[in-house]
From TrEMBL:
InterPro entries: Acyl_CoA_acyltransferase, GNAT_dom, NAA60-like. One of its GO terms (cellular component) is Golgi membrane. One of its GO terms (molecular function) is protein N-terminal-methionine acetyltransferase activity. Residues 48-217 form the N-acetyltransferase domain. The gene is LOC107222856. Signal peptide: none annotated. This is N-alpha-acetyltransferase 60. Keywords: Acyltransferase, Chromatin regulator, Chromosome partition, Transferase. GO terms for biological process: chromosome segregation. Its EC number is 2.3.1.259, 2.3.1.48.
Amino acid sequence: MAAPFNWYSQQQVDGNGLCCEVTTECNGNENTSKHTAVTVPLCILADVQLRFLCPEDLEEVRTLCEDWFPIDYPYTWYEEITSSSRFYALAAVYGGVIIGLIVAEIKPYWKVNKEDRGILCSSLDDESLVGYILSLGVRRAYRRNGIASLLLEQLLAHVTAPERSTVKVVFLHVLSSNAPAILFYQRCHFRLHSFLPYYYSIHGKCKDGFTYVLYVNGGHAPWGLWDWMRHVAGAIVSLGPCRVPHWIWQRLLWAATLLSYHR
Ligand SMILES: CC(C)(COP(=O)(O)OP(=O)(O)OC[C@H]1O[C@@H](n2cnc3c(N)ncnc32)[C@H](O)[C@@H]1OP(=O)(O)O)[C@@H](O)C(=O)NCCC(=O)NCCS
């Protein structure tokens, strides 16, 4: 069967320590190349190349994910992330070997599962898109070298590009016991949004999870009581103490007028 059609690009370090992006069309045995000028600062990790996954990566990606994650993903999942343009699936390659990868998906907010429906303020939810990180991992020998940070930076640059301004939040689920990943995401300014009891089923056992979020492009969480209190307090302070009784009196008059209309 012919390999599914896919686009992938390779970012290579140029002579200035910056990167140029080579976009390659991968369709079965045919490979045609075209160049798109993109600069990516890779001063420290100069020997690491970034490129999108392609169908030929399937077995390598599968071996890595089986090592990193206690979850058995179906074969079709690997087929999809290595071939479908629906996913932002970026690999960090060193010496011809994949040493890290990130897989994310951009989708409308209304497609988000019900347990995560509260991540955006309701005034933003109709047209908004969200970025969901399905997978992020780095080969054990290469951890604490900034590889995951590099991959995440690329994703964040992608979702904050002007043409994706409707993406309002990037979020993910993580096992509550996965301390390294939690510390990593916290270091990258993700914030805990919710605790998901028994969210995962791992080898027949239920395990708790967390949802972590990072707001982008002006996205924000729904306002809680504390936010409203801060807002009202801020408004009162900005009025000045002598105008507060007048301000309250005016609101009471408005409320009374509205009530009399509705009688
Ligand atoms: C989580 C993971 C992706 C981090 O990858 P990495 O390439 O080592 O991360 P980075 O080098 O970019 O780390 C950046 C910062 O995150 C924090 N961090 C990352 N791993 C950490 C760990 N094991 N312990 C404490 N802090 C850690 C540190 O602050 C680190 O900065 P520092 O090295 O200067 O102290 C990696 O540990 C991994 O692949 N884990 C297995 C797969 C997994 O659990 N993925 C997440 C699923 S949601």
